[in-house]
Amino acid sequence: MKKARIIKIVSNRYEVLDEDKQRFICVAMGKLRKAKSPVVGDMVEIEHYDDRWAIERVLVRKNELIRPSIANVDQAIIVMSAKDPDFSTTLVDRLIFQVVYANIQPILCFTKMDLVEKDDPIYAQIEDYRKSGYALYLSGKGYDDDKLVCALQGKISVLCGQSGAGKSSLLNRIEPSFQLQTQEISKALGRGKHTTRHCELHAVAGGWVGDTPGFSSMDFQYMDIAKLAARIPDFKDYLGMCRFKDCIHEKEPDCYIMKMVEEGKISRIRYQNYVDIVAVIKQRKIKY
Ligand SMILES: Nc1nc2c(ncn2[C@@H]2O[C@H](COP(=O)(O)OP(=O)(O)OP(=O)(O)O)[C@@H](O)[C@H]2O)c(=O)[nH]1
Ligand SMILES: [Zn+2]
Fold first, then answer.
1. What atom in ligand 1 is closest to the CA of residue 171?
2. Per residue in 13-23, pLDDT tens?
3. Is 240 annotated as a binding residue?
4. CB of 233 within 8 A of CB of 132?
């Protein structure tokens, strides 16, 4: 029995990496696939039989995404461009909420910084994230990405952000083999691309990067407000201090979170974006 991590799945062929970084191709028995379908990022136990390796067991996941199916994601790099498309704290905050709700650590990466002047108002907005304690990196043409590279090392990451934010450009900048890796897949899958199940973690800067999760506004509708509130990093230091135990920090009396917003300890922008999402979640409840 060996412990290994799934890094690639094509149909029913599982590529895993063991603790000594050796690669094995495994199959998964039908019984296992029915109980808990193995996904990339999964830690599994594999066993050798006469002519092949088989996945015997999927170990407990620390988190999982559904689209794409990836387990045990360490962090999500939220990519937002300074310009083209326009910088939006509403969008950044919505991504933060979705990422933390999935129990994944958010990291912010502001790209295309070369497109704005040094005195652009977005610097103040970025500073607001820094003050709130978020790990953040500035990137773009002429910027060096060494610190971001360090943050990716040894971790499983996903990049999220709107189309055109610069996600692929960023990956290609920090890992020149990235484009090659993705081209090889499309070539190998050819016309079967849309019918063959395929999921992979790409080797990037000493870590692993999965496909971009397609978060949507639908995801908010199924959220539990209390759970979301408990996971927002800006609120973390001040939880459990409201008058009501089940306070959702919306309009309750003696709400400590609101007090902290008033005192400038919690970003007012992030709080407002949270309240807007609470309204979205509540709308769903009224409908049914
Ligand atoms: N000036 C400048 N342009 C950039 C930078 N990063 C990306 N771009 C340009 O922005 C456009 C979109 O970049 P992509 O990397 O394709 O964006 P993406 O997030 O991967 O987009 P999708 O694949 O649609 O999700 C391209 O024309 C890039 O050349 C940057 O740091 N500076
Ligand atoms: Zn409260």
1. 15
2. 999 999 999 99
3. no
4. yes
